[in-house]
Specification:
The protein is mainly beta and 179 residues long. It is 11% helix and 31% strand. An 8-stranded antiparallel barrel has the order 1-2-7-5-6-4-3-10. A two-stranded antiparallel sheet has the order 8-9. It is globular, with a radius of gyration of 15 Å. The protein starts with 17 loop residues before the first strand and ends with a strand.
């Protein structure tokens, strides 16, 4: 039996739970880093099990940056969330292309349900490089459906009320399930 392949620098050695996001543009499968970000993964999985992500949209799409979703319906009304979780950004994980991280406000420990998928290497979001010294917590990566991520990042967007970079045609997360 061959030895397991060594993880890339900064990547966790333990494969965690997988989540399938069935979107209106195709499926995206995420592998979560429970060994490095246990509180963040537990939080995300709780939202998946509760059906929170079902019927939400990717409400913020910036082609050379990221696609963000997990908290709003197509009409941009926010879904109720649980209390915020502690920020797990000091893990050595990097906001590289196809990684998934928690969205938050300017307050470090403010992440609830919203997440984003990096569509570029965004190392300026990593804790050591972040302007606020805190950064954004990477808690997984896309392992299938990169083509779907690539399609989503190029959708036409516009401003809608106070929101910028909103897809003109909503990109729906129809269902999120544990694999």
């Amino acid at each position: 039996m061959a030895a397991p392949e060594a993880p890339a620098s900064g990547a966790p050695a333990v494969a965690g739970p997988k989540v399938r996001l069935a979107t209106s543009m195709g499926d995206i499968v995420l592998e979560l880093y429970k060994d490095k970000t246990p509180k963040t993964v537990d939080n995300f999985v709780q939202y998946v099990k509760a059906g929170h992500y079902d019927g939400t949209v990717f409400h913020r799409v910036i082609e050379n940056f990221m696609i963000q979703g997990g908290g709003m319906k197509a009409d941009l009304s926010e879904k109720p969330t649980r209390a915020p979780i502690p920020l797990e950004s000091r893990t050595g994980l990097s906001n590289m292309k196809y990684t998934v991280a928690m969205a938050r406000t300017m307050v470090p420990n403010s992440a609830t349900s919203q997440f984003f998928i990096n569509v570029n290497d965004n190392v300026f979001l990593d804790q050591p490089n972040a302007r606020d010294g805190e950064g954004y917590a990477v808690f997984g990566k896309v392992i299938a459906g990169m083509d779907v991520v690539e399609k989503i990042k190029t959708v036409e967007t516009k401003a809608k009320g106070p929101h910028q970079n909103v897809p003109v045609q909503p990109v729906l997360i129809k269902k999120a399930t544990l694999e």
